[in-house]
Amino acid sequence: MKELILVQFGQKVREERLKQNLSQEQLADKAGVHRTYIGMIERAEKNITLINIGKIAKALEIQIADLFAEL
User: Which residues contact 42 (CB under 8 A, 6 or more apart)?
Assistant: First the structure.
């Protein structure tokens, strides 16, 4: 069973990505991570590190805290 926090975090990343009309591949390129990694995060298959949370927030041009809002 997937941890709720991972599911919620993945949903938030997907929501923010879609707001900006970015594909998973485009976000991955901006964040400097592998293209499949974004999908794994959005599907709650990865327990993401703080370093990669920072990379994704920067790529989305939002604050790290925004990725945890309403979780």
Answer: 10, 11, 13, 14, 17, 24
Q: Which residues contact 19 (CB under 8 A, 6 or more apart)?
A: none
Encode 33-66: b = buried (16+ Cβ within 10 Å), e = exposed.
beeebbbebbebebebeeebbebbbebbebeeee
Give the span between the Cα atoms of 60 and 4, in whole angstroms. Answer: 23
Instruction: Kindly state the DSSP code that residue 57 receives in the 8-state scheme.
Output: H
pLDDT in tens, 5-21: 999 999 999 999 999 99
CB 17 within 8 A of CB 62: no
Query: pTM (2 decimals)?
Result: 0.92
- Residue position matching structure tokens 């809002």: 69
